[in-house]
Each structure stands twice: as structure tokens, then as C-alpha cells.
Amino acid sequence: MVSPALLALKFCQCGLFQDRDPCVALPTDRFEKDHYIRHGLSQPVSSEENVCTSATSTEYGKLLGTFTNTAHGVAGTIYVIDARRIWLRGFSYDGQGPDAFFYVGSTDRPSGNGVIIPNENEQTSVLGAYSDRNFILTLPEDITTYKWFSVWCRQAGANFGDISIPANFVAPAPLDLGSFGFDPKVHDVSATKVTILNTKQVKFTNLVYDGEGPEAFFWVGGGNVTMAGGKRVPHVDDNNGVKLRAYTGEDVIVTLEGTDRIFNFGYISIWCALALQDFGNAVIPADLNVPPYVASGNPSPIMPEFPNGKVLKEDRFHICWKVDEAAGTLRLRFEGTVKRDEYMSFGISGSQTGTSMPESDVIVAYIGKDGEAGAMDYYLQSRSQCVPTNGDGACPDVLMGSAGAGATNDVTLLSSRVNRGITTIDVERPLAAIDAKDKAISLEPTYVSWAIGELNPEKRVSKHSLVPRGDVQVDFSQESSSCPRLALPAGDKDVTPWVIDDLTPKPAPEVITAHIGPSGGEQGYQGIAGQVGWGIAWYLNGLLVPELNVQRNNIYKFEIYGGNDNSTNLANFHPFYITSDSDGGYNQKTAKGKEAETIYAGPSGGELCDFTSMADPKDFDTFEKYAETLNKTCPPMLKPGILEWTVDPETPDVVYYQCYQHRYFGWKINVSGASQTAVSFALMVALLALAVFNQI
Fold this sequence. Notes:
By secondary structure, this protein is mainly β. It is 8% helix and 34% strand. Strands 20, 21, 22, 23, 26, 27 and 28 form a 7-stranded antiparallel sheet that branches. The radius of gyration is 33 Å and the shape is elongated. It starts with a helix and ends with a helix. The relative contact order is 0.08. The model is unreliable at 1-55 and 296-304 (pLDDT under 50).
């Protein structure tokens, strides 16, 4: 994490130690809160939580300046969100100018030869009074087109206050960090591009990951890429902190939690918390110039409570709600046992006398296979696929074409998550009908429509798979109802581990090869060894962690292809060794842990030559079938590491082959044959017996 001294330094660089602290002001009324929602911006937090820690990027964008040459009480600060949007903070004006507007221009100084900017309500009416207000304005062109921003009175030909726009001003924009992943790859992790979208979001383009890390997560931290000082970034794809799923070339957006901002960290990575290994990382530059966080359409971890609810389909789909009449809003929680790319829809029936899908006004909520949540305002014109040109079928309001001119998406996505098989999505909509395709929420018993179905490739609804059988009513004013909890879906059936044949090699010169490969999940290493590995394991002679049978007083030769580069990437550094410890990982242990372990042979590394597979182990009931999906990746002119093990007569009956750098890679070695002690005792008995015989 960034040190307090550095935070204080950056705080000064941001220009925040002023009479008017732009990082402190909070929305003061309902208007401002609605304004943030309409412009898709996160609402600011208190000064204790909101520390601006970058010389360029701040909570509100890049600082442009404060008003000068002021009259009529004009005051405030402007931040630039991106090339077209600016954020006025703490803006005041007495409203006494007869013909005043927000103006921008490209002349050397403010004048009437400029362009009017629509106000915060997207209107070009004469400005009224403002008192310490915060709001967003959209410029007609890129900000670099202009030289100044002014409160300009046309009738008086007067400037009431202005801010200059420097000629070399660079507006915040997403930052491309380049490609992602190591060479050679670790757990197939790669992305063609990593982009910092804003102060809270990072996008991975074409992300690939095999999903085999046992506790792998998106991770951020400062300094070196290690667990110390770093933290997990919760994501819908990590199953509430269990582990990340596999990715097969998908675009994934990662959003930091709470008050975290990207400029607080030095890297973002995919990190395995169990193995303490970095699967791939991108360095975050120290001085960012990216837009502030845009909250619209991005889930928040905050899950508010809902006092009322109704079971639409038992153990399948529940709807919960909270009415705020003062704010004019209805909050809804969609909770269902649905898959990714499966939608839940709920809304007002097309008929006032029963449940009818045609002409219903519904909200469609989902989490896609890419992990992104969505919530859209739909009008169900008819029981057919959406035809945007004429609005026929089940269409989002924004795609109603001429049939829905002026229709908008009046649904705000608040949060989403998947936990133990249950998808939960919170949304908000106005109580009033905003456009012609909306239906107002009545506080009387109301007939509703609902459905569950699959999304099509365009992330629009396809034909439902589940709908109500009969009429369904909801009383949104009901105070005595409760929001029931869904029963957890039944877990997977017990998994039977694969049966792996024992390996009983002949002594040297016969060679035993040792490669790294996928662990095989619950059927593989986890089921065989009873340990949760970190997604890769040893393969001996092409077999996944077989039990190895050896005899004392013999020499066994191993060719090791585990990787020998420990300078830059320990995730591809897997020296092979034989040990008394069933877990391995000698190099990670404390001094006391090392003292308790006996090493019988090794370590030895060799160049990395590993097996990979994009198949899901759960799809195979035998290792032999899964092995057909394996591909071996080796460098040219491969040089293995050589390990020769003379099995000492005093070697215990069970020892283990493991990875010297990481734990949970290998399995057991069964040692047989008489020990030296046993041989000596037998010989002594035989000699004694012979002596007695000779005396007879």
C-alpha cells in the first residue's frame, strides 16, 4: 500500500489544500444524487474515505482550475472527466444575470463569440441561481477545441467568471498497459491487452486462464507482486472468494471495491493465495491520467436490505422490493438459481385483469458468461424476437425504433453477485412512467409478469424456459411481507478420483521422466492425494502423480523438465526432489520447518517442458480419456535436469516426490526391500546358529 508520507505528498500535488477542498464536497440534495445517476458517476464519499492520491487522476477527474475574474457570486472548480465531459464542483452563482449561460470558446479571451453548453438538465435556458452545487456538463466538441470556459451574459456582453483551458491540456483517457502474462505462460494466463478504464476499473481483453489455481484471484498491491501488502479484488467470477473460473478468450472488467482507487496500487495480477504465486501481472504507472470511476452498469458490492418479497417460483426465482415514495423510486432484488447468460425478468403485466406477457413493462436482469451484469428496461410488444426497426417482439426500450420514439432505459443496476449458485441482482426504477413504454408502479395490488430464459448472442432475451402458470399479483405497498431466502441448489455429486496405475521402474539406466501438467481437479490430484493443489502437478512417465514403487539399495535415474529459471518467474520454477514431507515446498518453509524435513535426493530442475489442456477434467471419467487432450509444450534443444537417487538402506517405507519451490505437487514413493539393519540382524542370527551347529 502507498505510505502515509506519499499519500500526503500526492494530496498536495492534487491541489487539495485550498480554502475550498474539492475532494470533500458531498451531494447535498436529491437533485445532485439524481444527477450523478443520470450521468453514470459514482457519488463522492467523505473526506476521510476520499483521499486524492495521484498528481493527475482524482476522484472527480483532472483538475482544470477555479473560476477567476468573477462577478455575481460565481465560484467553483472544474474537473475534466474525459474529452467531452466536465465536472463542476462547489459551483455558485447568484442568478441575477438577465441572459447568462455556460459558454466555451476558442478566442483568446471570453466573449460572445462562443458556444452555449447545455446546463445540468441538458437544457439551454438562462441560468438560475446556484449555491455550492456539483454537476456534470457535456461539451459540444473535444475540450482541446476550446481556450476557455465562462459564465457569459449575452445581453450585458459580460464575463461573470472563467477558467482558461491550456493549449497543451491532455484530457483523461483510458490507458493501455499492453499485453498480459508470462513467457512461458503460467496456467495459460494471457490477455492481448490490459486497459485502465478509469480510477476503479481495469479491462482484460481476450483473457485466457485454465482455472486450475486453487485460490487464484484478481489481486492488487503496491511494490513487488507478493501477497504481503496486496489484496483480493472481489469479482463475480471468483465464486464469492473460492477461486476464479477459467477464461477462454473473454473480455473481463475488474472493479475495485469501496474507496479503493487504481492510483493507490502499483500492480494488478492474477495471484494464487494458496501457492503464493503470480500467474501474470501488469504494472500500474505512478502518475495516471484516467477518467474517474463510472458506476453505471457496474455492480457494487453493497447489497441493501429489502423488507418485502414474493416467491415467484419456489427455489428458483424470488423477487424482493423496497418502495421509497419520498424519492419516487422502487428498488428490486432479483434472486434466482440461474446460470450465466440466463436472464430473470419481472415487471408490470400487459393486462390490468391478469398476468399477460404481451404489452408488459419488465426489467430484464442477468449476469453474462463474461461476468458482466446487466439490467434493461423492456417492453414486450408481442411473443417474438425483437425487431428493432419497428419495435415488434420483446425489445429493450432503447431499441423500440419508431414504435418507441423517445423511450429510454429507466433502470439503474445497483449491484450483483453469485454466491454458492444463487444469483442476486439489485436494480432501481422510478415509480412514475418516464416514457410511453413504461407503466407506473401502483401501490395497489398489481398483476405482474415474470420469466426465466436464455440470452441470445446479442445479450437480448430469447424465448423463456419458465413462466408463471396462472395470474400473479404483487402488492408493492404491503409492509408485512418478507423477502424469503432461496434454498441453496443441490451440490455436485460425489466425485470419484481417477485410478492411476502405480509406476514400478527398473533401476538405472532406465529413466523416469518428470514433467509438469494440469492437476486434473477433484478427479485428479485433489482426489488422489487428498490435497488441494494449485492447478498443476507432477507427471511421471506421462502419468498424473502415480505412486512410485522402488527398492532399497538400487539407483534410480530421473530426467526433470520442471523449469530452472528462478530469476524472474517462480511460477515456472519447479525443482524436483525426494523428501520425508508429504507437502513439499522446502524453499518456502521457515527455518524450523526445514529442520523437521529430510531430503533424500535433489533438488534438480531442468528446462520447462509441460503438459497443457483446455479440457474440463470433470468431463472425463478416466485419466486415460483426459490424457488424450494433453499437449506437450517444450523449447527446442531441450536440456533436462538429471537426478540419480540411491535408495539408502535406511530410507523409510514411504517418502514423497515433490516440488522444492511449491507445496502440493507430487505424491508418495513406496520403498521396499530389506533395510541394512534388518540384513545385519538376520546375518547375526545366521552366524550364531551356525556356531551352535558346529559345536554339536
